[in-house]
């Protein structure tokens, strides 16, 4: 980036390390899948941290586990509305759905019973399952957002059952390997930062433990680096490669619940935290474990992302820092629009594009990369994108009013698209085409001018 921008970014980073009294802090800005700025302050041992220094990322682990769950869904191995009991029979909250666990709306207790799981060695799945008594359900499922680390411990076991291996081995094979995240591990590997607690009233440090969390590990076990987390930040921004369908990622980043009903500045999707601040809509996740805080976020509109780590239990405002890094980069160096280039499209889909009418209301249908269809009302209104369902002439709503609804193409005897059936709404090439199956039929007299209208007397 330009020297002035880099100086502003470094100053923001340095200010946070100093005022937050972090032993060390490392951060980066990501655009188009690449690190365009990285910086660090403080020391890890005798040296400054680098882009290859590992920090613990805490609950960012949840987004990675959620990706494994969504891959299972896309493979048809489970449905998000499935009750947990269908896949992990015998638990004390088997009626809670997989989607509710992903979005923290199942009402499950925040922390596992017993000792503070983040600072003590964790037991195996049978031990965790045995501890989950009926009292671990704190709210009616679906009634509210209630962050639950336990829920993600459960989801990790669900992944392990379906894959026949540990949740981390599945993650390494299906996500970390394909994304090139070779330095993201369940335990620290040199070079790595040590976790510290900073005394609140003196400049003193106390080492924090980092035990294996056992069955709770899917809630926050992982360590990573600036280089690796930059790849994950790019993934969150849409560069999913072969790991996940772009439509599935968009589904994960859609709002499932809000954390502050009055203002809606923070919410949660399916494995991603969501923020809406100063005109920006951000997706990603923060993380904290004893001795560490971390955050990765992407601005969904500009595609600019940022990430930050610090090896301190508290002090640095890591979410605010990450948001500010994105804002500085976008304000001082607005991202240029991507050069338009023609793309490879299926020419057979072109016949679905162009002008369609819902009753008298005109809509334009566009073909966009994916391939996806984008149905946009002329003059504004209920716009939605659609992805192929896998069945011929059938598409599924990705967002907007028609999210999750099915669009079916009806064809004439010669194969020409005649109408679109969208959740009982019928779209035709001309307003209320009498040759199409318009609900309620079309008046035989057709469209009438003033002289054609019957007298009211």
From TrEMBL:
In terms of Pfam families, this protein maps to: Beta-lactamase (PF00144), DUF7586 (PF24491)
Q: Which GO terms describe its molecular function?
A: hydrolase activity
EC number(s) per UniProt? 3.-.-.-
Q: Looking at its record, which EC class is this enzyme?
A: hydrolase
Keywords of the record: Hydrolase
Domain Beta-lactamase-related positions = 11-316
DUF7586 domain residues are: 345-429
The signal peptide, as residue positions, is none
The family database entries (InterPro entries) matched by this protein are listed as: AmpC-like (IPR050491), Beta-lactam-related (IPR001466), Beta-lactam/transpept-like (IPR012338), DUF7586 (IPR056008)
- In this chain, the stretch annotated as Disordered covers 435-457
- Name of the molecule in the record: Serine hydrolase domain-containing protein
Taxonomic source organism = Amycolatopsis pigmentata
